[in-house]
Amino acid sequence: MEFEVKQDCRYFTGDKPCKFKRLCKGCDKYDPVKENILIIKFAALGDVLRTTPLLYGLKEKYPKSKITWLTQKDSSEILINNPLIDEILAFNSQTFAQLSVRSFDVLVNLDKDKTASAMASLVRSKVKKGFGLSENGSITALDKDSDYALQLGLDDELKFRGNKKTYQEIVFEQAGLKYKGQEYILELTPEEFLYGLNVCEVLGVKEDTIKVGINTGAGNVFCGKKLPADKLMELIKKLSKLENVEVLLLGGPDEAEISDYIKSKCRAQVIDTGCNHTIRNFASIINYCNAVLAPDTVALHIAIAMKKPVVAIFGSTSSSEIELYGRGEKIASDLKCSPCYKNKCEINEECMQKLSIDKIYDAIAKIVKQRG
Fold first, then answer.
1. pLDDT for 29-46, tens place per residue?
2. Prediction pTM value
3. Does domain 191-371 have CATH number 3.40.50.2000?
4. How many helices and strands (H and E) does the chain possess?
5. What are the structural domain ranges in the chain?
6. Which residues fall within 8 angstroms of residue 191, CB to CB, at 6 or more apart?
7. Per-residue pLDDT for 65 more than 70?
8. How do beta strands 245-250 and 271-272 pair?
9. What CATH architecture applies to the domain 35-174?
10. What is the rounded distance in angstroms from the CA atom of residue 320 to the CA atom of residue 170?
11. What is the phi/psi pair of residue 258, to 5°?
């Protein structure tokens, strides 16, 4: 049988069968790609997730485009099953070789990372937006739309206190698009949705209670992002007195120790959901919560993506860039040195030590009351 595989079709899926189960020649569904778009966003996982609203803007401007997303292997899992991404590439020597011969119509690099910026400068594209790498090895704006975003990385006063734009407003501006409140995109499969329910059933979580998820950690990059264990236990004891409320501990492998400690001290007042889930299964557990308390970390962004009411706490990082979409409350330290974005703190992370537990409790209780 004579047939023709048209790689310029927007439904072309490479080695996979056509979604319409037809051959290209004579197919009445054939729809050519008008623009090939490359997004470069390597890390971190939460930053990759909060970049996904940009896909709506790109698809609105380029409705018949094919979108390729270049990221790190560890971040690629959060993009799986995203209906607006046609191709996910994990950065390695093979993808580097592949991209060195491909060309695009639009390229958007949103990482100030030198490797990502070098890729943006090397890959052929008619239009380039975001960050690139200059000949002397410094990060540069590829056009005037990224001047402000570049300045944020150079001017601490602007980033820490002057900036009032959310991350989404900034990246839409870099891409030359208008931000209209587009939401995160995190699409779980039906099986993944059931994972959180099954875990909670095994742990004895009651179906008719209000579940408050508390993420106990915040990674190891910046100090002053997470509440100390004694403050968390104080909060848990207050929350456990609320009618029809169950407190679930959330976290990844780095939080196993603190979660075990809190569970041993609080006993019947908390349910530990475990710290060894994949990121997508972790999202399923968060989806089972009715409210989430989280520092500025991936759990916060997953909760936002799953449209959960959140109470977000901030010490060493800025709260202004976080978009809650009207679902929840931000509670930030009022210390003069906050935010600082430091790796080590000379004053024992007082930004988190002095954060008001009563204020955090009141914000969560408000959500619980609304849910009740």
1. 888 889 999 999 998 999
2. 0.93
3. yes
4. 15, 12
5. 35-174, 191-371
6. none
7. yes
8. parallel
9. 3-Layer(aba) Sandwich (3.40)
10. 11
11. -70, -35
